[in-house]
């Protein structure tokens, strides 16, 4: 089967969801949806053995050949790992959602359609080898994320969060597109593989640094890195399955994926290493610090996700160092890339289970406010066990997988002492220190999450619902993930061989020929070294600080809200919204006559200016047809009718005179032997007079009085300007033939190639058929506009608000 | 005061059909002689407007129970379908095709895919014109 078609399977499945929901509503729609990711997961898993050996798959579907745009599915270690995460976690999340979302009360058809669109988009992001289609899928993930966050669209906070995530990630996406275009200009190709092949030449290019920064903006906004992370906490308004899936396991890791994928292209740059490692590490410590300020369970998890993403990002930054050292495969620098991918897998398992537990608590107690929760340990024993496993893994305790990758993270940070370029020999020491501080806070918030929810005193009076254990179906997915958390601790090298090493080989292709060459062995115990002492320090200091948390947590309240990044975002939105409003109110008067004045004056100004600048004024009275009696008579009638409009007292007279103007023009067409124009003009005049008469009733009150229009100098000037412009254009156009007339071309081809006889009509339907197509579309839109304006008049009703 | 419009009504009954026939003629003639979907559509619309002026809107609505919004949509669909049909023959979007056929009754006739597109234009023009006039006319 062709790989590239598999990407579209979820989106095709989405087409059937509304039907299944309507027809088979008694069966939860999720059961049908579950088949899609589960089947895809199994299929992709069969590719593992050969990818493990270093094999790759390519499959191409041409889309716009003239622009060299194609869907190219490229499956190597890195993309296969992400693909398995997307389909695997996807299946678990869909299973969880079946019990989380009620089939009677929720709009399941919307939910699963969005979710399946997201799945396709995400598969597209991680498998595309073509930069443009990668961008396309990238934006599709932003859009489906927007729809999913706003799933409960009657809530104000949901819409706010959806818009915020959309604004920030789409901003980043557009920047990234700019970076992609620069890359394709530099390399002359859209293919990532071909760009990687010419990485050393690219680094010399002037655009290189711009492309790098722009691409990183895309990655940082998507992966919620500082200072763009602010959208992620607000995205927690989404239903919990969505938070677990998009905002912790997959979509936010698209930025990580992009950085990993493009590491071979950019890693030669000093800026890349400093930006990725620096921003990542700063995000890690910043978010772990502020996680303790949160009162909402999902808020804590959101900040923790931001922090963990920062951790992985910083590891990828350090992994770039290996490109600068001869024989890096034999030094400690080799650990960074491995640690990044390993932690990514681990994070997906423990964070996924924690999110699901947060959802369960919300579902079964009715609140996520950690101040109201407590003492749930005995009421929800299974949830507690899962939460404990997830949290302790996140904190970096054995015997859970988080311990292994956290140790390796410290190893990677310490390995920077072997690296002495880019002034790292001076600054390297900062990296392990900041990493250590971040880890201490990670330890504290992990314990804060689990113990302030499950331990302590139970306060049933604070809870909207009687707390009890979740139904078994809801527990399957988190328990499964928690089991993985423990299992990976005992079989890390199996995971390493199957999943991590192929991905590492894709990130550092210059270092390793095949995944087997990645010489890293994970072990829980590796003697008394610096990492172990750092970890012990984390446990000691973190434990102590957690013990005294209640004494110092209120210090967070001292941090003023007025200088936060959220405030900056709000102000910017208000400013752009209000500013645009104020600006358009300056010139949007609501009267068509004002707009006509703008249009006509700009038109004559631009045309006259162009004529003047190009010195195109030329008047030549040769070659003119003789003026006949008919023309003179018609012109007199035309001018007379026009003057009647200006001088008329009643509007009715004006309308009739206007009709007379139109008919005179039609007669002129007849005399100049343009039957098509004459015919059309005649019918149009007839219908517009009828329309005018119909609309008569609706015209503004003031002018219904019998009075002559006042003379307005400005309007007279504009009218004169338009007249002069048209006259000059007509005369100049006649007097000089800069290029041969196109009518000859039409005359020659109209019968031979277009198979018609009437040039005017063939132009309309064939030569310029596109114009006609759009014109009739505009006509249709105008019709709809008039219906909405008149029939569905928007009246302001009291007490009606979108927030139910 | 009720005006006596017997003459207008009587004349309209005949004239409308003449205009409609002429509209059809103009529409089909368009490819070789003056005319086409746009003018044909406008003429048809003007015939219906004449009916509405001579009688009144509710009566005409009863005689011609057409939803003009749907008519517009159908026209747009026909137009876009004609334009995109060429994709399936592996030629660029909007490539027209034509040939000459020997049809019974008509003799040698040229059939052109542009005519299909023109039907779309015709329907949209009738639909939109009538939508606008009807909407404004019914509104009090």
UniProtKB/TrEMBL annotation, chain A:
<dbReference type="Pfam" id="PF13244">
    <property type="entry name" value="MbhD"/>
</dbReference>
<keyword id="KW-1133">Transmembrane helix</keyword>
<feature type="transmembrane region" description="Helical">
    <location>
        <begin position="678"/>
        <end position="699"/>
    </location>
</feature>
<feature type="transmembrane region" description="Helical">
    <location>
        <begin position="625"/>
        <end position="645"/>
    </location>
</feature>
<dbReference type="InterPro" id="IPR001750">
    <property type="entry name" value="ND/Mrp_TM"/>
</dbReference>
<dbReference type="InterPro" id="IPR050616">
    <property type="entry name" value="CPA3_Na-H_Antiporter_A"/>
</dbReference>
<keyword id="KW-0050">Antiport</keyword>
<feature type="transmembrane region" description="Helical">
    <location>
        <begin position="299"/>
        <end position="323"/>
    </location>
</feature>
<dbReference type="Pfam" id="PF00361">
    <property type="entry name" value="Proton_antipo_M"/>
</dbReference>
<feature type="transmembrane region" description="Helical">
    <location>
        <begin position="652"/>
        <end position="672"/>
    </location>
</feature>
<feature type="transmembrane region" description="Helical">
    <location>
        <begin position="532"/>
        <end position="549"/>
    </location>
</feature>
<keyword id="KW-1003">Cell membrane</keyword>
<dbReference type="GO" id="GO:0005886">
    <property type="term" value="C:plasma membrane"/>
</dbReference>
<keyword id="KW-0813">Transport</keyword>
<dbReference type="Pfam" id="PF00662">
    <property type="entry name" value="Proton_antipo_N"/>
</dbReference>
<feature type="transmembrane region" description="Helical">
    <location>
        <begin position="5"/>
        <end position="21"/>
    </location>
</feature>
<feature type="transmembrane region" description="Helical">
    <location>
        <begin position="472"/>
        <end position="491"/>
    </location>
</feature>
<feature type="transmembrane region" description="Helical">
    <location>
        <begin position="166"/>
        <end position="187"/>
    </location>
</feature>
<comment type="similarity">
    <text>Belongs to the CPA3 antiporters (TC 2.A.63) subunit A family.</text>
</comment>
<dbReference type="InterPro" id="IPR001516">
    <property type="entry name" value="Proton_antipo_N"/>
</dbReference>
<feature type="transmembrane region" description="Helical">
    <location>
        <begin position="111"/>
        <end position="128"/>
    </location>
</feature>
<dbReference type="InterPro" id="IPR046806">
    <property type="entry name" value="MrpA_C/MbhE"/>
</dbReference>
From TrEMBL, chain B:
<keyword id="KW-1133">Transmembrane helix</keyword>
<keyword id="KW-0472">Membrane</keyword>
<dbReference type="GO" id="GO:0005886">
    <property type="term" value="C:plasma membrane"/>
</dbReference>
<feature type="transmembrane region" description="Helical">
    <location>
        <begin position="12"/>
        <end position="32"/>
    </location>
</feature>
<dbReference type="Pfam" id="PF04039">
    <property type="entry name" value="MnhB"/>
</dbReference>
<dbReference type="InterPro" id="IPR007182">
    <property type="entry name" value="MnhB"/>
</dbReference>
<keyword id="KW-1003">Cell membrane</keyword>
<protein>
    <submittedName>
        <fullName>Multisubunit sodium/proton antiporter MrpB subunit</fullName>
    </submittedName>
</protein>
<feature type="domain" description="Na+/H+ antiporter MnhB subunit-related protein">
    <location>
        <begin position="7"/>
        <end position="131"/>
    </location>
</feature>
<comment type="similarity">
    <text>Belongs to the CPA3 antiporters (TC 2.A.63) subunit B family.</text>
</comment>
<dbReference type="InterPro" id="IPR050622">
    <property type="entry name" value="CPA3_antiporter_subunitB"/>
</dbReference>
<keyword id="KW-0812">Transmembrane</keyword>
<feature type="transmembrane region" description="Helical">
    <location>
        <begin position="109"/>
        <end position="133"/>
    </location>
</feature>
<feature type="transmembrane region" description="Helical">
    <location>
        <begin position="67"/>
        <end position="89"/>
    </location>
</feature>
<feature type="transmembrane region" description="Helical">
    <location>
        <begin position="38"/>
        <end position="55"/>
    </location>
</feature>
């Amino acid at each position: 089967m062709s790989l590239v078609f598999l990407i579209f399977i979820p989106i095709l499945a989405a087409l059937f969801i509304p039907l299944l929901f309507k027809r088979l509503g008694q069966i939860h729609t999720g059961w049908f949806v579950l088949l899609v990711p589960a089947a895809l997961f199994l299929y992709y898993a069969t590719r593992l053995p050969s990818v493990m050996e270093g094999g790759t798959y390519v499959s191409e579907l041409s889309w716009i050949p003239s622009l060299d745009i194609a869907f190219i599915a490229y499956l190597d270690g890195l993309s296969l790992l992400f693909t398995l995460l997307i389909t695997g976690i996807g299946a678990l999340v869909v299973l969880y959602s079946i019990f989380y979302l009620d089939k009677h009360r929720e709009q399941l058809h919307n939910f699963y359609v969005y979710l399946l669109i997201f799945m396709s988009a995400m598969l597209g992001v991680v498998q595309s080898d073509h930069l443009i289609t990668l961008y396309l899928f990238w934006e599709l993930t932003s859009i489906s994320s927007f729809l999913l966050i706003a799933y409960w669209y009657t809530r104000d906070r949901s819409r706010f969060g959806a818009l915020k995530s959309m604004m920030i990630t789409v901003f980043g996406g557009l920047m990234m597109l700019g970076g992609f275009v620069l890359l394709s200009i530099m390399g002359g190709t859209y293919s990532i593989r071909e760009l990687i092949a010419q990485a050393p030449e690219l680094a010399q290019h002037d655009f290189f640094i711009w492309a790098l920064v722009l691409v990183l903006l895309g990655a940082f906004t998507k992966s919620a890195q500082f200072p763009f992370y602010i959208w992620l906490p607000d995205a927690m308004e989404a239903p919990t399955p969505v938070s677990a899936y998009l905002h912790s396991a997959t979509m936010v890791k698209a930025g990580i994926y992009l950085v990993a994928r493009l590491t071979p292209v950019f890693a030669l740059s000093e800026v890349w290493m400093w930006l990725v490692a620096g921003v990542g590490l700063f995000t890690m410590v910043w978010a772990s610090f502020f996680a303790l300020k949160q009162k909402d369970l999902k808020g804590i998890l959101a900040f923790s996700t931001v922090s963990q993403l920062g951790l992985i990002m910083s590891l990828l930054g350090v992994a770039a160092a290996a490109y600068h050292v001869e024989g890096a495969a034999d030094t400690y620098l080799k650990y960074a890339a491995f640690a990044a991918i390993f932690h990514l897998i681990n994070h997906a398992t423990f964070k996924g289970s924690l999110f699901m537990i947060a959802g369960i608590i919300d579902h079964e107690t009715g609140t996520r406010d950690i101040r109201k929760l407590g003492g749930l340990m005995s009421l929800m024993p299974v949830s507690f066990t899962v939460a404990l496993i997830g949290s302790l893994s996140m904190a970096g305790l054995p015997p859970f997988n988080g311990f292994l990758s956290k140790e390796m993270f410290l190893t990677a940070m310490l390995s920077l002492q072997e690296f002495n370029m880019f002034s790292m020999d001076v600054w390297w020491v900062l990296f392990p220190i900041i990493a250590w501080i971040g880890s201490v806070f990670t330890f504290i918030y992990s314990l804060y999450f689990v113990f302030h929810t499950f331990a302590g005193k139970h306060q049933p009076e604070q809870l909207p619902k009687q707390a009890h254990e979740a139904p078994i179906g809801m527990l399957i997915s988190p328990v499964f993930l928690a089991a993985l958390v423990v299992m990976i601790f005992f079989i890390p090298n199996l995971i390493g061989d199957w999943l991590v090493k192929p991905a590492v080989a894709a990130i550092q292709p210059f270092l390793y020929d095949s995944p087997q060459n990645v010489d890293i062995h994970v072990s829980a115990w590796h003697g008394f070294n610096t990492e172990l002492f750092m970890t012990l320090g984390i446990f000691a200091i973190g434990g102590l600080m957690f013990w005294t948390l209640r004494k110092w947590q209120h210090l967070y309240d001292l941090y003023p809200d007025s200088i936060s990044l959220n405030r900056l975002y709000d102000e910017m939105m208000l400013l752009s919204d209000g500013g645009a409003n104020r600006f358009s109110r300056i010139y949007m008067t609501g009267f068509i006559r004002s707009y006509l004045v703008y249009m006509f004056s700009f038109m004559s100004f631009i045309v006259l200016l162009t004529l003047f600048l190009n010195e195109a004024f030329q008047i030549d009275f040769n070659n003119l047809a003789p003026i006949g009696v008919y023309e003179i008579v018609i012109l007199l009638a035309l001018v007379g009718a026009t003057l009647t409009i200006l001088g008329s007292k009643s509007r009715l007279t004006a309308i009739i005179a206007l009709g007379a103007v139109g008919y005179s023009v039609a007669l002129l067409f007849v005399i100049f032997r343009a039957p098509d124009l004459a015919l059309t003009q005649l019918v149009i005049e007839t219908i517009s007079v009828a329309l005018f008469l119909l609309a008569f009733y609706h015209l503004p009150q003031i002018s219904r009085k019998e009075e002559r229009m006042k003379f307005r100098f400005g309007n007279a000037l504009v009218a004169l300007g338009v007249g002069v412009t048209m006259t000059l254009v007509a005369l100049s156009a006649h007097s000089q033939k800069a290029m041969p007339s196109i009518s000859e071309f039409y005359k020659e081809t109209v019968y031979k190639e277009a198979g018609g006889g009437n040039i005017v009509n063939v132009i309309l339907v064939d030569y310029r058929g596109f114009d006609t197509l759009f014109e009739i579309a505009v006509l249709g839109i105008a019709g709809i506009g008039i219906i909405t304006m008149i029939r569905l008049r928007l009246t302001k009703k009291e007490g009606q608000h979108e927030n139910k | 005061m009720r005006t006596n419009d017997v003459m207008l009504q009587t004349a309209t009954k005949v004239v409308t059909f003449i205009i409609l026939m002429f509209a059809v003629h103009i529409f089909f003639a368009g490819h070789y002689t003056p005319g086409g979907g746009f003018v044909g559509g406008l003429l048809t619309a003007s015939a219906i407007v004449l009916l509405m002026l001579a009688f009144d809107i509710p009566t005409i609505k009863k005689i011609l129970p057409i939803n003009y919004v749907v008519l517009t949509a159908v026209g747009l669909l026909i137009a876009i379908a004609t334009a995109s049909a060429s994709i399936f023959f592996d030629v660029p979007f909007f490539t027209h095709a034509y040939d000459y056929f020997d049809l019974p009754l008509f003799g040698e006739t040229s059939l052109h895919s542009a005519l299909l597109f023109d039907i779309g234009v015709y329907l949209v023009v009738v639909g939109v014109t009538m939508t606008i006039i009807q909407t404004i006319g019914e509104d009090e």
